[in-house]
């Protein structure tokens, strides 16, 4: 494997073409790493590509704004679509294959099949985004079916999604290793997200309450605080003044995602996850206390 950025990028829009290109990679004896995205790429996505390159010889990146994971009042229509810029970034990052299918290619007319993961999807974002994880599990299954990757890399920024995909791959006996990668943050601690471009300057300043709240929880935990209610209160005290709506601030088991009640005592690892709106933009973020580094620099 060379570290040099690859000038050769194959871009496929049809599943047949993408499958043939992935088959050719495997036929040449190379391992394929997959990075599924919705495009509007940023340094977080490119870090996943770099991680995938460590696990495989060739990296395929998919760009698909998946309609089935958006609710009827969510931002599917306005989600940023900047294909030419994304392709340039892929070239610079040494991606070998990009798949940019139209919706009808992934959801052929008359399709009626969905993949549903139970348990994990009942917590955190599940109740606030009905059908979301079913959409995610379905599209990721289809992407795995077309690409046949040895490894697929997902960000811990979407911690629940990562756990759902892990469980789905395990339960369906899919021959793919799921790799989780730490959240990439801006210099001020805000987690990189394609949705950050919806934020006005003032909203972006307010959004810093998210990493600040998580950092305060991380510091409290490091100082010995284990009361779930207190950890939750610390985070909420930062978020409440800036959020137009809080979906949840939850302390949970990092594996099952089961919430800890306020009077419970956290173990040596605990997930703190939140979803809140700043203006009309929904932000999610998390840290695993006792494992992740402090979200503030
Ligand atoms: P998206 O395009 O938002 O669907 O994200 C595609 C992949 O990139 C998912 O696995 C995300 O978890 C991951 N990702 C998004 N933002 C970040 C970030 N700031 N750091 C690391 N991974 C990220």
List the helices and strands and how they pair.
Blueprint: E1 10-12, H1 15-27, E2 32-37, H2 43-55, E3 58-63, H3 83-93, E4 97-99, H4 103-106, H5 132-147, E5 151-155, H6 159-171, E6 177-181, H7 201-207, H8 209-222, H9 228-239, E7 245-252, E8 270-278, E9 281-289
Parallel strand pairs: 1-4, 2-3, 2-5, 3-4, 5-6
Antiparallel strand pairs: 7-8, 8-9
Helix pairs in contact: 5-6, 8-9
Bound molecules: adenosine monophosphate.
Structural summary, described in words:
- Strand 5 (151-155), helix 6 and strand 6 form a beta-alpha-beta unit.
- A 6-stranded parallel beta sheet has the order 1-4-3-2-5-6, sandwiched between helices. A 3-stranded antiparallel beta sheet has the order 7-8-9.
- The longest helix has 16 residues, at 132-147.
- With 297 residues, the chain is an alpha/beta fold.
- It has helices at residues 15-27, 43-55, 83-93, 103-106, 132-147, 159-171, 201-207, 209-222, 228-239; strands spanning 10-12, 32-37, 58-63, 97-99, 151-155, 177-181, 245-252, 270-278, 281-289.
- The two termini are 33 Å apart.
- Helices cover 35% and strands 18% of the residues.
- The mean pLDDT is 97.
- Helix 8 (209-222) runs antiparallel to helix 9 (228-239).
- It binds adenosine monophosphate.
- Adenosine monophosphate (AMP) binds next to helix 2 and strand 5.
- Can you give the mean pLDDT? 97
Query: pLDDT under 50 segments (min length 5)?
Result: none
Largest sheet: 6 strands, parallel
Content-based structural category: alpha/beta
Euclidean distance between termini CA atoms: 33 Å
Shape: globular
Strand line-up across the major sheet: 1-4-3-2-5-6
Topology pattern, helix = H, strand = E: EHEHEHEHHEHEHHHEEE
Count the helices. How many? 9
Please give the number of β-strands. Answer: 9
Bound molecules: adenosine monophosphate
Bin the helical content.
25-40%
Strand content: 15-25%
Radius of gyration: 19 Å
């Amino acid at each position: 494997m060379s570290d040099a950025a690859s000038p050769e990028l194959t871009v496929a829009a049809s599943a047949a073409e993408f499958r043939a290109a992935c088959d050719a990679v495997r036929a040449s004896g190379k391992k394929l790493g997959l990075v599924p995205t919705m495009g509007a790429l940023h340094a977080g996505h490119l870090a996943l590509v770099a991680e995938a390159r460590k696990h495989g010889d060739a990296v395929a990146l998919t760009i698909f704004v998946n309609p089935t994971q958006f609710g009827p009042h969510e931002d599917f229509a306005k989600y940023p679509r900047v294909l030419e810029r994304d392709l340039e970034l892929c070239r610079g990052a040494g991606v070998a294959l990009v798949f940019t299918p139209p919706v009808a290619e992934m959801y052929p007319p008359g399709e009626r099949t969905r993949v549903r993961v139970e348990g994990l999807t009942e917590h955190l974002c599940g109740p606030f985004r009905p059908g979301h994880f079913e959409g995610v599990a379905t599209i990721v299954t289809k992407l795995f079916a077309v690409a046949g990757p040895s490894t697929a890399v997902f960000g811990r920024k979407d911690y629940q999604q990562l756990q759902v995909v892990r469980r789905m791959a395990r339960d369906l006996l899919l021959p793919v290793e799921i790799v989780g990668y730490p959240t990439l943050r801006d210099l001020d601690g805000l987690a990189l997200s394609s949705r950050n471009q919806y934020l006005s300057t003032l909203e972006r300043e307010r959004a810093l309450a998210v990493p600040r709240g998580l950092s305060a929880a991380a510091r409290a935990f490091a100082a010995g605080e284990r009361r779930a209610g207190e950890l939750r209160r610390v985070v909420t005290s930062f978020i409440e003044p800036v959020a137009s709506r809080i979906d949840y601030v939850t302390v949970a088991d990092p594996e099952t995602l089961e919430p800890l009640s306020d009077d419970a005592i956290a173990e040596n690892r605990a997930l703190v996850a939140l979803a809140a709106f700043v203006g009309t933009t929904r932000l999610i973020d998390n840290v695993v206390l006792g494992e992740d580094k402090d979200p503030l620099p």
